[in-house]
UniProtKB/TrEMBL annotation:
Its main location: membrane. It comes from the Bacteria. Signal peptide: none annotated. One of its GO terms (cellular component) is plasma membrane. It is a multi-pass membrane protein. The keyword Cell membrane applies. The chain crosses the membrane at residues 79-97, 104-123, 143-168, 180-199, 205-227, 234-251. PANTHER family: MEMBRANE TRANSPORTER PROTEIN YFCA-RELATED, TRANSMEMBRANE PROTEIN YFCA. Pfam families: TauE (PF01925). The lineage of its organism: Bacteria, Pseudomonadati, Pseudomonadota, Gammaproteobacteria, Vibrionales. Keywords: Cell membrane, Membrane, Transmembrane, Transmembrane helix, Transport. InterPro entries: TM_pro_TauE-like (IPR002781), TSUP (IPR052017). This is Probable membrane transporter protein.
Amino acid sequence: MDITLLHASLLLFTGFLAGIINTLAGGGSNLTLPALMVMGMPAEVANATNRLGVVLQAITAVFGFRKHGKLEFNDAGPILLPTVLGGLVGAAAAAYAPSAWIKPLLLGTMLLMALIILVKPGVVAPEPGTVARKVAETPSSWWGLGLAGFYGGFVQAGVGFVLLAALAGTLRYDLVRANALKMLCTLMFTIVALALFIYEGLVLWLPGLVLAVGTILGTHLAVKFAIHASAKTLKWFLFLMTLCGCIAAMLN
């Protein structure tokens, strides 16, 4: 698919913003999916093509958080297993389910997350000094991570909020470390989803790679901000992005 200079500029700009938003909170795909569809892509093709940017953005974030010592691998295996399995099932559902299901699921998730952050912010923003739990000690985290993976494989948009709820809410990681693990989980289940979408011939490479350049730049900047920002600042950014996600889901 050929793209014009205007479309390339749009993809770079929205990718840059999405890279920042996805790294610090979630919901960046609320920007990138409409940008791809503006080019005339069907919803299922835009949903698949968007995953290229997500994968490269997640790689950038994982290396960035790891470089600053904020990514912990000691419980990564048990965290990734239900997330990737859920992502595989979700991607299969997305490849064959009616695209009309995407918007209600997205909007419902955004509204639920906004309500949780407003009514019980400690769920996604544990107090400083809270000791993180292991998956083996928290059986309920399996369901939360599995559902987050399914949602990410199916929709992608807003999956960061769902993963933060599982990582910070059930396993009690602080927001910086939860964001780092969120990006690792996103990388793994999105690779699975992207492979399935490529097999189904739904990915358009040129616009996907242009979008990815923007997401990489935004992610690089966001990791540096996350490392130095206070927990309170990250919490309010998360709340603001959740509200924006709700509005975007209603308008799209």
